[in-house]
Amino acid sequence: MDRAALFDVDGTLVDSNPLHVVAWWEALRQSGHTVPTRAVHHAIGLPGEDLLEHLLGPDRDRSGDDRLSGAHDALYGTWFERLQAFDGAADLLRALARRGWKVVLVTSAKDRELEALRAAVDADDAITAAATSDDVEEGKPAPDPIEHALSLVGVAPDRAVFVGDSVWDMKAARRAGLATVGLLCGGIPRADLTEAGAEAVYDDVAGLLDGLDTGPFSTGPGEQGRTGTTGRR
């Protein structure tokens, strides 16, 4: 039976979270909103509209949302050519593909952003499919993006593992019924990821790659029994 390895991209495969934080912080500042960078950081991983609601509340003047999102996109876009994948990202995806896993990217990034992220990872030969926030009506932490990604490759939830760096990733994957792996390289604390549902936690993709023979990908989803294993600390 087919197996799927689903990956978030920002903060998981690519070191882009700090850039998103700065871009959103500056976009908010330009519109007269004072939001601490720590709050912005914890909201990264949500689609733009949900991120603004999380930071500014549901009673905000929504007429400014498009301007805020546009300012973020313009600022973030200036770094596209300088985006850097984490060490081991391409090697990890290729290692899983060689082992028979269908590698699928699941991201809140828009299509144009995903192109830049994929260029940074430089492992398209290992990627079977990709799903973005443009493909679904509701983004993470709703399960919709995960379920859509699985439908692209025809794999059941109990035959898939999701890897991400945010609490929104963990919540979405758990709601979709997947085994979950959290990475610390996105800057979110281990305790937050575990509380949100991460069953295994690693420092980064290099740590996960080192643990392929003993971690969540060693036996396949549904076979290791949801043990709550943790990786490198």
From TrEMBL:
GO molecular function: hydrolase activity
Keyword Nucleus: no
InterPro entries for this protein: HAD-like_hydrolase_sf (IPR050155), HAD-like_sf (IPR036412), HAD-SF_hydro_IA (IPR006439), HAD_sf (IPR023214), PGP-like_dom2 (IPR023198)
Keywords assigned by UniProt, alphabetized: Hydrolase
EC class: hydrolase
Domain of life: Bacteria
Spans annotated as Disordered: 213-233
Keyword Hydrolase belongs to the record: yes
Entries under Gene3D superfamilies matching the protein: HAD superfamily/HAD-like, Putative phosphatase, domain 2
Protein name according to UniProt: HAD family hydrolase
